[in-house]
Records
---
Amino acid sequence: MDLLPDREASSLAAWLAKRPGVEVVCRDRAPFFAEGATAGAPQAVQVADRWHLWHNLSEAAERCVAAHRGCLRVLTPEPAQPVPEPEKFEDSLGSPWPTGHRFADRTRAKHSTVHELLAAGLSRRAIGRELRMTSRTVKFFADAAAPEDLFHGQWQGRPSKIDAFKPYLDDRWNQGCTNAWTVWEEIVPLGYKGSYQRVRAYFREKRLSPGPVTARPPSPRIVAGWILRRPETLTEIEHLRLKAVRVHCRELDALTGHVRSFGQMLTERQGERLPQWLDAVRRDDLPSLRTLAAGIDRDRDAVIAGLTLAWSSGVVEGHVNRIKMLKRQMFGRAGFALLRKRVLLAS
């Protein structure tokens, strides 16, 4: 056992060159590991680790499901009755600001006080001293015949930066995404220049609005979990819901077939079927899975060996977490030499 100081191909090649008896190099598909193994141990068989292969497939599958999240609405029951629109409050004074609105009530109170003092014979200067108002503010209230004349300007009909994005926000809300931060990160690349607080306030208004609570469609992670698990481990409800998704969405049906075919290759060591699997993936419109297939094709020999031979470094993943724990215990103050000794002695 050993611990190398970095992830450079040259470091791995130098380490392997000193050990000519190495026959098998089990690795993930990072390019520097492949280059280092080829340069340092050309006689060894390179084996792509099965744990990493399945992990990469899981991530690609979740991205595919997320790209077709609209198809998951089939799992959300339609409301029995249309949602009634909330009744709009008609103010008896004909004001655009209803009674109970903080700004409107404060403005009406100040307007009434100013006009009462004017009727009592006080001058505008005296009213300003009494109410601690500037002369301009007193004039503003005194010249208005009714408080409704004051309800204009920045509080009425002002366009907001979020207005152009409200259809997108409504669509994401209906898809079941109610996390304001997630949606804010999605609309910023689309040109939104406003703050996150505006998005949060808009979602809070929707969350608090009256109306029947409807079931949300399952998240892409949950549906990807149904696809990635063995069919016999699914419950009856999960099996039926996945079947509904597959019937409704041709792409997710194809994704399920590809994932299960790859799982069979992996568990039954049928690496010779990999070329046919890659060809089948390229024929379907699944960009994330195609990207994975392109990467696997570039490392085809190692992947076929990983799906055929008994060698695997999946067990090492547990030790990786332990090594990270030892590194964090030293709070970044110890050098590589001490870390290497701790890792090797703890092993």
---
Amino acid sequence: MVPPHALVATAGRLLAERFGAREVTLLLADYGLTTLQPVTHLPHTGDPVSAHDGPAGTAFTTQKPVVEVTSDPATQLVHLPMSVRGDRLGVLSVRVPATSAEPGTVLRLCDFATALGHEVVTAGRDTDLYLMARRTRRLTLAAEMQWQLLPGRGCARDEYVIGAHLEPAYAIGGDNYDWSTGADHVTLTVTDGMGQGIEASLLTSLAVGALRNARRAGIGLADQACLADQAVFSQYGGKLYASTLLLRFDLDSGRVCAVDAGSPQVYRQRDATIERIELRAQLPLGMFEETLYEEQTFQVEAGDRLVVMSTGVHGTRSATGEVFGEGVLRQILGATRQSSPHETARSVVAGLIEHVGDEGLVSDAAVVCLDWTGRDAGTTRAGRRSR
């Protein structure tokens, strides 16, 4: 059994035996998704590379292997995207003999990178190495708590692909997203805890924990909100509360049940049309005792893209007082229609940061982008046809 901290060395040995690899580097995306950080023996590490430019950055953003021709004619550097069920982790760069960089070998190397990604995720339960390697600077305690609470930064199934982004990545406090997938549905929540720093992080941790506890009890969406509302109110007595949007997608029909408990907003991009899904606003979780919540429904179709934003996105003003608003958002969504949900979520936050200028973000910003494929009417599942 390979020790958790020895995955890179073991991968190098295996790749040398099977593919004649002469150099193997594991690059993990940092929390802000700006750089790819080499994993070596900490605290010593190599120089980071861009997560968006260059051969390695291209492999990361496109999620496709990139073969780089190097100054050494006898070798080529193959950059392999590493992800786990749609959650992009980084890139595995492997230097192989030039004669080995043929399509069949590259595909086998891709399979190896995917397997290594699963091992890295599992190893993260027993070592801090991979979490520490991702950092360009120290996380605040509140951010440490929030990142541990998150499910990841992406999720993919045949029916949908999710990509998410948070800023300020190294100082996030109260914003959170969460999802859970099942055989027939996927549940997605975006939560904006009141306040900043540790106070906001503790509040959001309680709200998300309560929502998960209710969801795992198998109760409906509205009742999940009710139970989480009671948990937050019992702790804070209405002094602090958490704005939350709950969405539950039926994988067969594309029917979406929604509870709008506060201020996160959702937009739907269908073909060339971008529209805000108007939901009846209900009280944030924990504002009053024993609040009752009601579900609403809307429909998604194959090809739809949904973008969910916390208040720190749609409510942020620039130095001149201009709200980020729909105008800028529509421009960004129009320009990123062919990009992946991961890159679209990142682009929305990048546009927000540009909008506020030198002053930087004063509130947390969370964006979740979901591309919907759904199920074909003729797909057979569990021995029966989908509706």
---
Amino acid sequence: MFSIDIAQRRARLAIRHRLVASARSSDPVDIARSMVVLHATDPATVFLSVGARGTDLTPADVEKALYDDRALVRMLAMRRTMFVAPTELLPVLQASTCDALAHKQRRTYGRYIEQAGVVDGDISSWLADVEAETHAALLTRGAATGVQLSKDVPRLRTQIDTAPGKSYSKPTSITTWVLVVLGAEGRIVRGRPNGSWTSSQYTWAPVETWLPQGFSPLPAAQARVELVRQWLRTFGPAPITDLKWWTGWTLGEVRKALAELDTVDVDLDGTPGLILADDLDPVPTPEPWAALLPALDPTPMGWQSRAWFLGPHAPALFDTNGNIGPSIWADGRIVGGWAQRPDGEVVTRLLEDVGTDTEKLIDAEIARTTTWFGEVRAIPRFRTPLQRELTA
């Protein structure tokens, strides 16, 4: 069996993920394409992920790509996770993942509404009517927040208790549910946030006006093949379990997509993996490099099996839900963590000895990250043990 060692995997990571200086880009869309998608659960992650891989870029360049050029689009996709994707990938994500997600979420919300007993008649028809009315209201407004739409569509203010009788019970309106389903179906789009690039309070826009060029639908099977191909190009070689985890699909769906691609079985230091058949040539070892990657960056979140770049550092850098915090990288492995303090200072801690030359590279990345933040202070969406210590 063809073998690929850790050193080669780290070399591919450095170059294909644009973390080594010679591979960085001045185009936010190009950077997003390199990663397939950018993780966007925390809005700041998108901007910091681009900043870590960019040259001569500022947050304003990312905002331009998102909201003016609309070459990037924010959407709920794999594993019901928020991503920012190149707009041309939208048909692939829609057919491979989002259509099924919309169906699942509508079914889940419908059960909650039925259990609450607040609607007479067929729940599916009632919910479809609310969705249509919300979409029409958004077409009229052009752009709106959920609060504004709930004033136009009174049924959005319907209160549902999803955990009646529980101590944590809290009735909530169905506004977010309806917007999530419409977004997953590709009928509406998350637009500009109400605030800085770290804000998660978005306005919504109908896809008809946000992307007037539209997009041609794809068969789901074809879309899955294309998404798998792109993932293998960026994250391969890798075990099939990593691909299954990243996509959130069933193992059968993953295997069916792989069957349409020309792949080669490889040995990854004792673990079976896959690689595209035209990607066997080794990648040259890059120059020494360092990077400060944000929480939930797409590089560490690209694989489920992370020992080959994470080492023993998971307890310090991950929270109890499996979210990775800000990490320091050197030559293809994680060597520490970082955080931004309330006064704006970027503080770090190395978890292993890296040598003087690497420390100088890390210092340069600290300066780049500090400049990228400017006057903005990013409030973490979750806290990891090391991040807590650094900001105490």
---
Amino acid sequence: MADSPTHRVLVIGGGASGNAVTILLRRAGITVDLIEAKPDWNATTGSGITLQGNALRVLRELGVWEQVSASGFPFGTLGITTPDGTVLHVAEDIKTGGDDLPATLGMQRPRLQQILIDAVRASGATVRLGTTAEALKQDADGVSVRFSDGTEGRYGLVIGADGLNSATRAAIGITERAEPTGMAIWRIAAPRPEGVERTDLAYGGPAYIAGYTPTSENTIYAFVVEGCRERTSIDPAAYADEMRRLAQAYGGAWPEITKHITDPTKVNYTWFDRLLVEGSWHRGRVVLIGDAAHCCPPTIAQGAAMSLEDALVLAELLTSGRDWDSELLQNYYERRVSRVRTVVEASMQIGQWQLDGVRDADIPGLIGRTMTLLKELP
């Protein structure tokens, strides 16, 4: 089976979901080609990432939990503070991955990507960097693909894991597009101030949210969320100045963090987007996973978890011995959509409360209800 074009898989995109599904399919002996548009495989991109238990559960299934655990910073509570740093509430994080995994683990995003890259390489998948799919031509038996380097390939299934602005999604005629939510985020990696051992979120002040998450014994990533500004109105050379201006209004650990917001090339500015493709996530033998099918603001830090769960569920179905047909791919969508919709809607609700200035919003309650649901296996 592994050598038949009918059961050869092309994965488009080498982010979390694409890497994860590649590792799982290779473990089952399926031939996988992975292509990634970025020549560096995004190995140095990003500041930090918050991984909750249900994401860690998938990483354990991938066989990389030991490396992730050694690289990250585990914690089990979430602090809510005033802008001056006064702690208002400390919530116990729900262990969505089970009692034998941390509730939450922060880590440097490039480190997580490198761990997954190493696992993909070790799996024996064929990897081509700096390569895109220029054309997909489907028939009853598979998909013929023409690549940007002029070569061609034949596959039984194509998995579009090419992110928020997925070219694969557009190529198969799915018209939904990611839409801005009205919020944007400034992010930076910084040294970990003494005493910072969990995520703290300050609501209010000159920004909607100011927060930080420990990502190792020595590092954190810090973020400030404000209303969207037109990107062209902000000179990238002023990114550090802009983030520092917002951050200076916050107390607690922020004065120590703010001292390190000096290099504009280390600051990332991104709009929040929302997407949930409805009805199905496939057309013929091309199927979407991760941000290509859904995304939401990181207000409950579940984006990576949802993408990793997609990979786990799709790989489970593809290795079940069933035909790779529309019924199987629709089963994948039906397994995922309710859970993903819950996360997207909760993430959007928290953001909308901030945009609307709702001061008595029950953010901890909404997070708690959502996380309780996510304890269930995907």
